[in-house]
Amino acid sequence: MESTADLKRYELLIGGEFVAPSGGEYSTNLDPATENAIAYVAQGTSADVDRAVQAARAALKPWNAIRAAERGRILMRLAELLRENQEELAALESLDAGKPIAGVQRQDVPAAIDTLAYYAGWCDKINGQVVPARPDALTYTVREPVGVVGAIVPWNFPLMIGMWKIAPALACGCTLIVKPAEITPLSALMVGRLALEAGLPPGVLNIVTGKGSVVGDALVAHPGVDKITFTGSPSVGRGILQGAAGNFKRVTLELGGKSANVIFADANIDSAVRATASGIFFNAGQVCSAGSRVLVQRAVYDEVVERLGQRARSIKLGDPSQRETNMGPLISAKQMKTVLDYVDIGKGEGASLVTGGKRSGERGYYVEPTVFANVEHEMRISQEEIFGPVASVIPFDDEADALRIANGTAYSLAAGVWSADIGRVHRMTAELKAGTVWVNTYGYTDVRLPWGGSGDSGFGREHGDVAIENFTEPKAVWVALTS
Ligand code: NAD
């Protein structure tokens, strides 16, 4: 074990200052690749949440007193600061979340910067409308900020998903309290520091680290918070919906998934296998839209299973700081146990383990890329989100059978279809129950396209102009033209 004496201490960001938590407690943050301590992180309390909410409320007027174009310039300055500091930011995210550095540099950091730049451009384009209701009145709408936002972020894409919430909320004139996942708070705190440098007024962006059951709960219950935007598990999401009822907060929930990636026999099997492997093994499968159910038409089933197994075996599992690493550890001992338990469940249910299924090494939370074949739709490994590098490959007969299986879980976040038949592709995209459907590709996201699902995958959408609606309230104004 490393010496922990000189570890950095991370404080809370409240009202433009980094401050100690009121309870004086800090948690030890671990590197999931080595299990070594990497930092001490402030454990916020409900009193800290209250302070942050007061700061965010006080900052609402000053933030909206700044001309919209100037607010956009501040966000753009922050995007530039992120770009200037991208190496440090990527290294911090990779270390904190155990994510392979090449992927963080290719996806997480550029996507966070792109999100910020995109919404910086929205600041002075959030318009109302003149609506001609009657001749004796001028009737129009304006869009006002929702107010104080509580943003609760998961650990799988701490920076990118955090920015999906921070950027549109700020663009709309809201102020925020961000609660990062307890185990991956470092990139959010770095964004907070750079936001102050970019000229964001104090109190506009507050960051309260700590436990979900303490800080998250307090945010959800606080009467001074107007909206909660949450990404995480369905069980916590359900509690949030109930907790937010007190003052009828607006709520957006981005929850889990058990996405079907459907491969027809007429597909380009090379491309399908390549994208299917990254669709489940990217970020060690800790992706809400992971293509964790691979549905394969019987004529090509054995071939796809074999080739997917080969690809899984060729993945370079290892140190996330090394550029050649394709897959890092899982985020925590708890997540590793969950995934290994599901491997046992799959074996017990009678699925055939093609490859993987074990912990790799004795230090760090590594699990081998795993493929199960002969999975049946009713099995738990086909119905429940594993959130790890485990592909369940399920055979199907025809379109109707594929749809029955694909649409047969409680989730509906994303789906993939692989086929050369354009008519079939359109029939499938129309019938698949999912917020996003990828055709002959898998896994892309972009801030310009809506993101989210329904059922146990939550409700509401992030990204694009939908997020502008999420963070604003329309107001109707009637001006009598007669005296
Ligand atoms: P989680 O629900 O345990 O935690 C998410 C966040 O909620 C964390 O910040 C946590 O501290 C906080 N939290 C925990 N208990 C809370 C409470 N009682 N009140 C308020 N906040 C609380 O989920 P996780 O383990 O961080 O992430 C994994 C889950 O997130 C998976 O189910 C995954 O599918 C989902 N996810 C969804 C998306 C999406 O876009 N739909 C993206 C990433 C992750």
Automatic annotation (TrEMBL):
Keyword entries, A-Z: Oxidoreductase
Entry's Gene Ontology molecular function annotations: oxidoreductase activity, acting on the aldehyde or oxo group of donors, NAD or NADP as acceptor
SUPFAM superfamilies, A to Z: ALDH-like (SSF53720)
Classification via Pfam families: Aldedh (PF00171)
Domain Aldehyde dehydrogenase: residue ranges: 21-477
List of catalytic residues: E254
Top-level taxon of the source organism: Bacteria
Cross-referenced PANTHER family: ALDEHYDE DEHYDROGENASE-RELATED
UniProt similarity note: Belongs to the aldehyde dehydrogenase family.
Annotated protein name in UniProt: Betaine-aldehyde dehydrogenase
Organism in which the protein naturally occurs: Caballeronia grimmiae
